[in-house]
Amino acid sequence: MKNKADITQVLTEQKQGCEEAYDKLLPLVYEKLHAIAGMRMQREYGEHTYSKTDLVHEAYFKLVEIQDVDWKDRAHFFAIASKCMRRILIDYARQKKADKRGGNEKPCTYLDHLYAAERQAKWLIDLDMALIELAQCNERLADVVECRYFGEMTIEDTAAALDISGATVKRDWRKAKGWLYNRLK
Length: 185
Hints:
185 residues, mainly alpha, globular
């Protein structure tokens, strides 16, 4: 990936109204976005119709459409990008789960991979609901989960994105994992 300062500079240009900023940004962030998408897709079931590249492009288009974000730096950008990818995959899982119900159609087979796909979609939706609930209790804990789990961000990048210390990120990460474990079991 290119220099971290380059990314922050382009985000600053975008904030100042430079129309070409997003065109400059994509080559700088594409590799990292692709890596994040790859990690996200590894957690998805095998019959997924999204590719890593599809997920990156859809997330980037959503990011470009957001007008009111005050980009702080590269860590903040990747945290928001991670949230976008999560939302895309959750929406996809909801749609697949609705499609699986099939109205009045009766399931005609119970192949293992179909069951696994439905189970994965249900788990992702349950996780999303738990994160919404966690955010209502403690928004910072939910933000730490977004960055660490969905964004695959380091402790340091998470701390920078959320403007908190690394020690706080570590504490919040432990608390959030415990809370989610209890909520989802």
